Amino acid sequence: MTPDATAWDALRLSLWVAVWATVLAIPLALWVAWLLARRDFWGKSLLNAAVHLPLVLPPVVTGYLLLMAFGRNAPLGRALEAIGLQLAFHWSGAVLAAMIMGFPLMVRAMRLAIEAVDPKLEEAAASLGASRQSVFGRVTLPLILPGILAGTVMGFAKAMGEFGATITFVANIPGQTQTLPSAIWSALQIPGGEGQAVVMVLMASAVAIAAVLLSEMLARRVAARIAGT
Amino acid sequence: MTLSLSLSHRFADFALDITLEAGPGITALFGRSGAGKTTVINAVGGLLRPDSGTISVDGEILLDTSQGIFIAPHKRRLGTVFQDARLFPHLNVAQNLMFGARYAPKGSVGPELSDVVSLLGLEGLQTRAPATLSGGQKQRVALGRALLSHPRMLLMDEPLASLDGPRKQEILPFLERLRDGPLGLPILYVSHAVDEIARLADRLVLIQNGQVQAQGPLFDVMSNPAAVPLLGVREAGAVIEADVIAHGTDGISTLRISAGEIELPGVQAPIGARVRLRVLAQDVILSLTRPEGLSSVNVLPVRVEDIHPGDGPGAAIALRAGTDRLLARVTARAVSELGLSSGMQCFAILKATTVAPGSIGR
């Protein structure tokens, strides 16, 4: 049994969507993680709750809320469409859905990593004359790289596997918005489609395992550099 | 180079209210844990924003709460050496050192990497990771890193407190070199170890419960009988300077102090060197007549200057020996039985064990 064109399309789209979702989410997740770990401000628990919402809401609900906000008839969706950015029923909408669903996982991993950095090291850097930006760039960031990697892999895996919010928000149009999970689901709806479903399940599993192995390897390398061996 | 500060800060359980001046030389802040020493050094470094107060270095204002001035820590140019060395774990020794140098202002005058490496004996450590260093080595790297940032002043917060005896002895000579060397960097030195202070400090500030109890030149504060309860009765005692004049073949050296000559074992300094002696108050015995047939030969004629009764059965006696001041701790009963009073001439017997090797400096 070899993958058919639909399967390859779905894999290609899933990778494309997941990479975009992860890359776009990293800086924002890092910033939010830093805010939650290091700053005290009014509404902090509210922000924390909002970040975690996609983790606890049924994904279909998240997808529906996205449709309400960015649908072609919603004010926000219409405004974005006027500047040429269509989200609903478009692969870019799948990127947004994947970002939002993976975001809490990324923030959690990064926040834990930032909290594990002793603020005394940052104080020491400041006492030597490093500005807040330099302290972050030269002390905090290198020390949390393993956490950033872990969060990135989590976010990527979530983006690869996201189904409920994606299918609700951008539907399941082969070649346009049909990601690997959507394609697997579709294949299972067709009599005799189990074969292609199995092929795509293997594809999805291979990508997930490869991502974990890659991140383990990178994390080991970073940890070794930090330990200085 | 002078640091002036006046701070008030209220914590949940105590209030700090401190005014002091520091520099040039080493100014030691002494007090028990929780006395407020670290609060002072954190406020100077900008790591803590006190409720109210002013801090200035040579007239440049670092903090003035009434005017809303707060200079950020990284703009103060005060190098801090913390009790825990706080080396960056992802950088090796050389990279840690260069982290300091990176932020030295362009064109500023101060030690270069090679100077610091030789001053602190860091040869051969440069490629090592902080995790592989001993406590003493870490502290030396932290000191070097701070020096390379070309600070106007060094802040040292119990830099030796986490080290054991031998490791302390490994660092102390470097601190003395720093004090006496060409850098002439002023240091604000927080400690609760009297032996370190006796060996290093030029000025001493005694802090208790967030208040300054005494401050002034080290020799004056250490010989002040009122300071005995603050330093602890076992630790209190004058610090005096002596010149090494001879080393005997039996390991006993002769030293000259202003009141005469004394003999001590275990003096490492060469002939002609000037050393500091720490004469513990509890190791000074008073006699009305010149004693004969004693095992100790260190008997000095002294004049009683002040008698300071303590809370318990003891009393601290301030003595004048030549131009130096000594401190003796005797019982209140002995004071009345000997009839000690201010202005009286008597003899002080210093036990030969008074001076531990670590108590001798410079």
Automatic annotation (TrEMBL), chain A:
Protein name: Molybdenum transport system permease
Gene Ontology MF terms in the entry: molybdate ion transmembrane transporter activity
Transmembrane segments: 15-37, 49-71, 91-114, 135-157, 195-215
Described function: Part of the binding-protein-dependent transport system for molybdenum; probably responsible for the translocation of the substrate across the membrane.
Compartments (UniProt record): Cell inner membrane; Cell membrane
Domain ABC transmembrane type-1 span(s) in chain numbering: 11-215
Record keyword Transmembrane present: yes
CDD domains: TM_PBP2
SUPFAM superfamilies for this protein: MetI-like
Organism for this UniProt entry: Sulfitobacter marinus
Keywords for the protein's UniProt record, in alphabetical order: Cell inner membrane, Cell membrane, Membrane, Molybdenum, Transmembrane, Transmembrane helix, Transport
Main location: membrane
Membrane topology summary: Multi-pass membrane protein
GO terms under cellular component: plasma membrane
Family classification: Belongs to the binding-protein-dependent transport system permease family. CysTW subfamily.
The keyword Repeat is assigned to this record: no
PROSITE patterns (UniProt xref): ABC_TM1 (PS50928)
Automatic annotation (TrEMBL), chain B:
tRNA processing recorded as keyword: no
SUPFAM superfamilies: MOP-like, P-loop containing nucleoside triphosphate hydrolases
Taxonomic superkingdom: Bacteria
The entry's keywords: ATP-binding, Cell inner membrane, Cell membrane, Membrane, Molybdenum, Nucleotide-binding, Translocase, Transport
Domain (Mop): residue spans on this chain: 293-359
SMART domains: AAA
NCBIfam families recorded: modC_ABC
One GO term describing the cellular component: membrane
The keyword Cell inner membrane is annotated on this UniProt entry: yes
Taxonomy of the source species: Bacteria, Pseudomonadati, Pseudomonadota, Alphaproteobacteria, Rhodobacterales
Protein known as: Molybdate transport system ATP-binding protein
Domain ABC transporter: 2-234
Single GO term (MF): molybdate ion transmembrane transporter activity
